[in-house]
Amino acid sequence: MKVLWFTNSPSNYKRGANKYNGGGWISSLETSFMDKEDIDLAIAFTMDGQEFKVRQNRVTYYPMPCRQMKKWRKIQSLFYGNTRNEKENWPKLIQQYQKVIEDFKPDVIQVFGSEQPFGLIASETNIPVVLHIQGILNPYLNAFLPPFISLKDYYWQSLNPINALKNYNRICLWQRNCFREREIFKRVKYYIGRTEWDRMIVEAYTLRQSKYYYGSEILRAAFYKDEIRDIPQKLTISTTISNPTYKGFDFILKTADFLKNEMGLEFDWKVYGNINPRFMEKKFRIKTSEVNIHLKGVASAEEIKESLLRSTVYVHPSYIDNSPNSICEAQLQGIPVIACNVGGVSSLIEHEKTGILVPANDPTLAASHIYSLYSDRNKNIRLGQKAKEIASARHNRGRIVNGLMNTYLQILKKD
């Protein structure tokens, strides 16, 4: 079977090209796929300055040049809406994707994520296309700004007119991408997802005219190595997030402030990711250094795993998410997780059985649960171990690869 993936990252092409947090789950899936002798895999992605086609370790890579909107078009889009210039770029992108398809001649095409334009190809080819849901932009945009933060706050967070225009353009880009995502949902017939939330969103956008298959994700290799957890005496919290406002850094600030100044607890809160705290610190008048938050920056999988194994609890503060791998990585280490009950998170955590769910923007309740898991060691271990059992089955590499193969076969039978 010849399978073509369109991906948001270069996966294992030129190891190290995707440096953020040491790569992603798609590269882990590619590595596991290499055990399948009856699969001929190709991966297409955007990367400038490369050959059209590269064969490497039994995989064919297609680095496609980035076709970005011209500067004058970007400026024009600020005044003429979010869709007019977006659609003008689609024919050239589709032509680029068709060139890859014509060269590789796949039996099935898998598109990873609706964030990029790749899914537009579904209505331009007779080859079956399955869209593997990652995040979904439209509901994400709806939760883009946390409570007490307005668009005006977001635009002018640095009091710099140039940065304000950049932030305004970032919102315009999100709106254009959301428009394109809705168009992709109109074109794609087959979907792979992993939560009740993404299944229901797909049904809503496609009016149940689509076919949905379950498919979990393979995590980074380091997290599959079984190691003994060492629960610290001092309350130690870990979190891995990125910088967008909806990822909930404000939630961390407010929860840490309550833990320290209302509950009087001694703790360390280690936050991994590309976080710039200045805007949230200024808005909520809480300094990270004054509430025991330690920003660790982008770290390797091994560093994050080491932190998890020596943490009391993992907290996921995001205001919207589908199935964040950071939660799954923590669960695989046997760490109890406290997360906001948003998006698809409830498909990963059963409240009080495999973790704790709290309402979005409820730092007081989050702080209470953190203290509960700190003070009740037996409950901490029980929730962590049960989460580990569930996560180990959910992220079993062999089961995921075989399930994906079966999905391909079912789609080919239907077509």
Structure description:
The protein has helices at residues 25-33, 71-79, 84-88, 90-104, 137-142, 151-155, 161-187, 196-206, 249-261, 278-284, 301-309, 325-332, 363-375, 377-394, 397-414, and strands spanning 2-6, 40-46, 54-56, 59-64, 108-112, 129-132, 190-193, 211-214, 235-240, 267-272, 293-297, 313-316, 337-340, 356-358. With 415 residues, it is α/β, with parallel strands linked by helices. The chain folds into 2 domains: 2-218 and 396-414, Glycogen Phosphorylase B (Rossmann fold); 222-394, Rossmann fold (3-Layer(aba) Sandwich). Strand 9, helix 9 (249-261) and strand 10 (267-272) form a beta-alpha-beta unit. The protein is globular.
